[in-house]
Amino acid sequence: MTSSPLAAPSIPPVAVATAGADMFATAVAAQALPVERVDWRPPMDGTVEDIAVVAADPIRKTANDLALSRMLDVQALLVGVAPASEVLGLEPGQFLHAGPPIAWDRASGPLRGALMGAAAFEGLVEDPEDAAALFAAGTEVSLEPCHHRSAVGPMAGVVSPSMWMFVLEDPASGKRTYCSLNEGLGKVLRYGAYGPDVLTRLRWMRDVLGPLLGEAVAATVADHGPIDATAILGQMLQMGDEAHNRNRAGTLMLLRDLAPALVRSSRSAAEVAEAFAFIGGNDHFFLNIAMPACKLMLDAGRDIPGSTMVVAMARNGTDFGIQVSGTGDQWFTGPAQLADGLFLGDYGPDDANPDIGDSAITETAGIGGFAMAAAPAIVRFVGGTVPDALATSRRMREITLGENNRWPIPVLDFAGAASGIDVTAVCRTGILPQINTGMAGKVAGVGQVGAGLVTPPASIFPAALAELAARTRARG
Fold first, then answer.
1. What CATH number does the domain located at 48-72+302-475 have?
2. What average pLDDT score do residues 187-203 get?
């Protein structure tokens, strides 16, 4: 039987793909037609040619696979607590700071305040105010990034010889990373404060807390083995922490693991009780273990020719810098940005310094701002909404090489944290890494003024891409 010439022809369903403005997709969908929405953005300005060169690099995929696998294979263990003079070789007059290299004349207010306070803490001056002339002269003191000594420092990140450091180690490679002890929030050295109460706290941390933790960690290692920071980070993501601005669960798990050794230590009961109260009352205490754990991972992915994976993001309060696996120790820098967030008391945007600190090493590794879906309560500290937090964690997957199955995020169906920021993907999509951060007052001595969300300056990724493209062309 043949069909009638008057019968309507059979029309296959039409599928429409849309990119850009959502209005067109909505109009098509209203006509009951299938629509595929594509979240497409044009590449960053001036990057098309370099993207093509780097994308065609025959060693890029293998290099990135190697960088990511080395990063994810690291197990970060807490193996000690010791003075910076001992583990970093710092001598009197030598100071480390957060972010890429910077001299005193360009240093931000909070970095200057922290350096001035550290100089008084080390006894180089009696009054912190007198240290400004010391650093301006530069003949008796020196400044160097924490990253250049396998260390990281939150906010101003200032480390001086007498400060005690957490020591983390990867047992497979024997490599180590370091970070100072966390002072808490508010008027503290890392936020640029240097008043008498700040110095009193630093001296107590040097004379009591540091030696007590050193003894307790050593005893714990001897009795039960090192504390597995990588495993604790995985548990934190399932307990509401994202390990940058929320470390409550991590801090309490650390205190649990150290409690027996703390109680059995040689220090007095009063000193042990004071340490318990300080650590238990400082929800950010574990941050200073999370940071060197992340650095230990990312350092394992360094120096692989052809790799486009970011291995460090850091800020000194003036500049924001990144380092990339395939470009060695070279820094790509741009102006640090002001965070958008919530302020303490009567402080406002005019009081805040641009972004500062090495703590973005957490986002570089895939937690912090990348894992806000695991810690929806974080929005009450840094601003935004719970849907924003979920969307951010999903969006970060578009600019990363893979995921870390040791760090599953429950609300994302236990998918691993997005890991391995890819310079090429950032330039191709225009999506910038999301960082959640504290905000320091721009005037030295003020301390913390708030917390919020921030991204790197967009210009640094095309600069890194251009260098990667140049190296690809040079290899021929």
1. 3.90.1700.10
2. 97
